[in-house]
Structures are given as C-alpha cells and as structure tokens.
Amino acid sequence: MMKEQGILNEQIKKCGLKSTKSRMAILQILYNNDCPMAAEDIFIVLKNKDIQINLSTVYRTLEALEDAGLVTKIQIMNEDRKLFEYNEIGHRHYLICVTCKKLVTIHDCPLGDYDHHVEEETDFTILGHKLFLYGYCRDCRENGEVKRTENSI
Amino acid sequence: MMKEQGILNEQIKKCGLKSTKSRMAILQILYNNDCPMAAEDIFIVLKNKDIQINLSTVYRTLEALEDAGLVTKIQIMNEDRKLFEYNEIGHRHYLICVTCKKLVTIHDCPLGDYDHHVEEETDFTILGHKLFLYGYCRDCRENGEVKRTENSI
DNA sequence: CTACATGCAAACCGTTTGCACCCTA
DNA sequence: TAGGGTGCAAACGGTTTGCATGTAG
Q1: Please, what are the domains in chain B?
Q2: Closest Cα of chain B to A51: distance in Å?
Q3: pLDDT tens digits, one per residue of B78-123
Q4: Which of A:28-57 have CB within 8 Å of B?
Q5: Three-state DSSP class for A17?
Q6: How far is the CA of A1 from the C1' of C19 (A)?
Q7: CB burial string B28-53: b at 16+ within 10 A, e below
Q8: What's the pTM value of the predicted model, to 2 decimals?
Q9: Per-residue pLDDT at B23
Q10: Residue among B77, B128, B137 whose CB faces A75 most closely
Q11: Which residues of A fall within a CB distance of 8 Å from B152?
Q12: What average pLDDT does the segment A73-83 reach?
C-alpha cells in the first residue's frame, strides 16, 4: 500500500506535473480500484479518508492526469457521469449491469486485427476501439431486477 | 420522401403513441439521416424547415420514441450530448473521427458469438454490446488535424 | 520567488420537470 | 371530451471557470 506511492509519485513528476497531496491521493485511489470511478466517487473516498479537498480540484486533477496519460476517461450507456480509471497496461473492455451499473473490466480483446481490417476498408486511420457489453449481473437477475426494456443494445 | 410518412405514422401508432406533427417530423428526420443526431441538431433542422417546436418537446419526443423502440440513444467518447438515431435493422457499430466527430455507421459485426462466450465465462446474462472505433477521417488527416494526443483509446 | 495548484463561488450546458393549455383519437 | 402532447420557464446535475490565495520546485 505504501510501496506504490514512490512509483506513482515518480509517474506524476515524469509528466511534468507537480506532485501534490491531491494528485497523489487521487492517483492512488484509482490505482487501487479495479473499476472506473466518477469524480464524485473519488471525492467521497477522499472525504472518508479525512483528506480535505474541493470537488473542482478533483476535476482539475483528473483532467491533468488524463492529459498526462496516467488516467483514462470513459463514458457508459445510461450513466450521465464520466468515469475515470488508472491507465495501466493499455487495452481493456467493460461488462456493465444495466440495472445496478456494476462494472467488470475485461482484459482480453476479441477483436484481433479488426482495427487494421477497418482501416483497409475505409478512409479512416484507426486509433483504436472501445467495446462495452451490457447485461444483468447475477445479483440483479436473482433479485428479479430484470424488468427494464433495453431495446437499444 | 412522402412515401415513408405512412410507414412512420403507422409505426408511431402501433406503439400506442398518438401521431402528432412533432413526432412525425422528428422520426422522419432521424429516418432520413444516416448518422445519429443530438437533440439540438434535430431542433435546428426543424427550425430550418419552419416547423415550430420547443426544445423540451424534442427531448420528450425522443424519450417517447426511444421507449417505444423506434429510436436508439447512444453516447460517444468526448461528446457531451446524447445522440439519437432511427432504430432500423438491429445491430450496428460506429466509426468516429476524434477530431471533427464525423460518424460512420458500420453495419457488420465482427464479434460473432462473443456475447455468448462472455456469458459462459461470467456471472452475467448478456443483452448485447456496443463497439466504437476511433480514428482520423481522411479530411482531418489531409488537413493535418491529427495533433491531438488520444492516449485513452 | 515564481509558476503552477487549489478553494470557493458562480457560471455553464445539456437535460428534465411542473404547470397551464392544446389537440388527437 | 378525456387523456395524452406541447410550450414555457424554471430547476437540475455534472462539469468548468475566474479569481484570489497557497505551495512545490
């Protein structure tokens, strides 16, 4: 828990950012959380840790960390807030419960060289792709929380 | 152009919705547009057609059409607004220019029975997936509009 | 000591809602 | 003519910004 602080600290500095309490704390929270979080989630975790911070600082910090490439921002269907995650080892996809919004990260990619294939078939230079799977998690299924019509997937 | 009006009209009624000028106009705009549109885009098109309408009616109409399954709502990376499209023949994916936001619809799906595969490997019941490809369109590439660092794809 | 970080409050922007009026079925 | 549809204005929620102050390098 303490050990990674040095690494994160270095990562921040390497990007030309000043290492501050806020940045360290936020990067560490994302580093230790396996799911993307909304700015406000992070804000709440910080409060619970008695780290005093302003919500707009959370947003500015996340923006700085994203620009630096240390953090990634994603947007999920039917979730109005943007989510942020520590940007480790490149590529990943997401499995999301449409009922409770639970999010599971999928680390292997079924798409192989599909990006390359599309590049050949279109006018576009492909940078990458994002894949989201939607469904019901076990809890929601067992609790009968499956009434919602999701005709748009 | 006039021919489809009967079909759209019927579709609206079949869903238990009253057929009104707003609903017809909006559904027709989406029907004739191959790309997803933001509520405000639709609002502007209506204005240009001298169809007077209130923006909140556009939102309410889109919501009704979505609930009825006639329209689909999607969200795109780095686009704050929600986009809507006519919900024809089920499944499709999107290719988006990160610079100018140009959007191309891809009608074939490279994922085969991947949904089923994930269902077997997880606790989830899979409803479906959404796939977005990001890159530079030809115009932006030729205009040198490719400076942006997109390290999150 | 200086440039960048932060707190605070206010603005912002897309979207939603309450209420009175309107119009389709 | 009854119940859903619409206009208008105000609220809403997540995010951004201007400005004064604080702090890392």
Answers
A1: 1-88 (1.10.10.10), 89-153 (3.30.1490.190)
A2: 28
A3: 899 999 999 876 688 999 998 888 899 998 899 989 999 999 999 9
A4: none
A5: coil
A6: 55
A7: bbbbeeeebbbbebbbebbeeeeeeb
A8: 0.90
A9: 98
A10: B77
A11: 66, 72-74, 87
A12: 93
